[in-house]
Write a structure and sequence with these properties.
Radius of gyration: 19 Å
Mean pLDDT: 80
Structural class: mainly alpha
Largest sheet: none
Strand content: under 5%
Shape: elongated
Distance between the termini: 27 Å
Order of helices and strands: HHH
Number of strands: 0
Oligomer: single chain
Number of helices: 3
Amino acid sequence: MSKNNRYIYLLILLLIVAIPAEAQCAMCRAVLETEEGQGTAEGINNGIIYLMAIPYLLIAGIGIVIYKKFFQAKKQ
């Protein structure tokens, strides 16, 4: 098994075994818990996690591009 395949399998495993996260502040939680249905609370949780993940993905993408450019220049 090549090194790249191991990383791909590890990434897939980590995505499958992701732990659900709840990311509400104390005030948001207090307001949303008084509600009958929990649909709004789940929507806010999903929105917060989405907004939190985007900067990390962008930084990771930029890091990968820089890493590839650095090693391509080194090989030539």
